Amino acid sequence: MKIKSLTLLMVLSCVLFVNGQNYKPGKVSKEELKQTQDPLFPDADAAILYREYIVKYDYSQSKGFELSTTVFERIKIYNPEGFDWGTKRIKTYNYNADREQVGGIKAVTYNLVDGSIEKDKLKTAQIFEERINNYYVATTFTMPNLKAGSVIEVEYILESPFSSIDDIDLQYTIPVKKIVVDVKVPDFFVYKQYPNPQAALAYTFAESDKNIELKFREQSGLGTLNRNGNIGSSDGRQLKDRTASYQERRYLLEEVNIPPLKNQGYVDNIRNYQARSIWELSLIKNPNGIPKNYSTSWEAVTKSIYENDKFVNQLNKEDYYKDELSALLSGVSDPMEKMGIIYNFVQKKVSWNGSYGYFPENGVKQAYKAGQGNVGDINIMLTSMLQSQNIPATPVLVSVKNYGVPLFPTRYGFNYLVVKANVSGKSFLMDATDPYSYIGLLPERAMNWQGRAINRDGTSNWVPLYPSFASNALTYVQAEIKDGAFEIKTRERLSQHYARDYRSEFRAKSNESQMSSLDKNGEDVSFSEFDVKDLDTNKEHLTRSFKATSPSLIEEINGDLYFSPMLIFAQKENPLKDDNRLYPLFFDYPKSRKYNITIKIPEGYKVNSLPEQSKAQLAGGAAEYSYLISEAGSNLQLAVTLDINNPIFVADDYQYVKAMFSQIVEKETEKVVLSKI
């Protein structure tokens, strides 16, 4: 009862503190600067003390309605780990005439020095602009004189020629003490506004309406507001003052003490579960014409992308590769072999420049010539080459994991492209941007729920992106005890994603770097005779072998020998440490991990006790674990298997999965006891 009362008192104190603060720019208090930790979330590295997000449509007679967003925030930095919050990166669309503008940047760092508040203002020379790709620019700056204990204030205005309002974040990885969101929308623009359905928290806006009068000047004749809010006029010559009125809807939200997003590990993208306000533009009213409906379907979205000149025209280009591809495929008639040759050719011919997007960045012809391109360049090129050889192939629109999952039909729901081909009655997904993948195997960034395949007639359909097969890792071990230490010989076969991930991490690294990754439990182990085969290929499998010696794996007590038969491969810690789970669990892809371990019983010893055999299974066979150990002549035989057949578990299944891993840790740390004969 005392604990509950204390917690309630802390919450009430925080609310009173928040409500008593002055959040006008420049009004940072000494109390804020003296604060050393967040009272509700003491582990936080920083906290958003106040965030104000104001969205409105500004009207001008020449441009009509344009979107304006003003952001002001005050952030407390508690320790050096929170310094990242002192660097700002504002991303804006900047392509041809369609340009968003960032202006009015004001930023100040406040520090308490000898009892006085010192201010360091951001200078214009400290603001930088970098082009991300053909479409986006980033404005970046880092706050001056940042220290543990600093408070920073940042203010800027984002002006956009586009009508649609971006999603508004309400929750972050640090606590938010107070947030105010104020959105004002003319009734020409009709929105569907709703919270993120995957978030644990949801907040409601208060809505109100107000009549607004516009004053403008026009030539004599009848002026009209068009669908963009521009004033049309007749051919008259006299200027007259006129007024027009419209209804403005206001959406207002004020919240305090929003808890931070907690990254619990094994999450696809933490933003998928972030509290935020989603704004879907459904209609623009034209007072003197037909309203334009923006509510759409996935079929219409994909069709509009496919029919865009930047997409379909690039897909239909063949002249730039025709001669080279014909020579490459000379004498090859088997479609499967052709597909493999084409995939390998594109994968090696054009390297990925790291830029996403389903539209080609510089055009497929230029990418082919330069040997470098974005995702759209490379995979549209791959699709075109496959189609040119009468291999049924379609581009597949994808949202990568760090981009999130699209919740409603919009062309902005995708930012990536892979390819699907059908050969001999089978479908194959592929991505030639990844230097470690092969046909049928996508990189993990692209395995995000489902993609939208666009057929040649413009129709489309959903395609699952997670593999239906399990990736396998099989480890064979022979071990014996010599001179008080284990000598271990290991041969390992990694397949599918296990092999791809290993190549991605270690292809460019030395044997020493690879060996250092083997000792996952920090044992006293020395490695030798390390060898990896097929590291530099993209075959389905790779193998590695090594020897290891360790005196720390065995303990002698009163003449008996104690050791875990899992040796250096034991799972000693449960990776799931939280008491409760807020988000689904993601294990990336279906997988099977097997160990076959043979341990020679030293002469003069016998088995005193063995761990009990164990099996565990989650509902529906979503995951299975088996631990089978036996004495076979002068050897111990151990077979351990962990199969994760369903890589995604809902949060309600967390306790079952955690309990299974606890059982694995308990079992794999149990000891064999050998006694002298």
From TrEMBL:
Residue ranges occupied by any DUF3857 domain in the UniProt entry: 70-197
InterPro entries: DUF3857, Transglutaminase-like
Superkingdom, natural source: Bacteria
Signal peptide span: 1-20
Keyword Signal: yes
Domain Transglutaminase-like: 329-399
Keywords (A to Z) from UniProt: Signal
Listed name of the protein: DUF3857 domain-containing protein
Highest classification ranks of the organism: Bacteria, Pseudomonadati, Bacteroidota, Flavobacteriia, Flavobacteriales
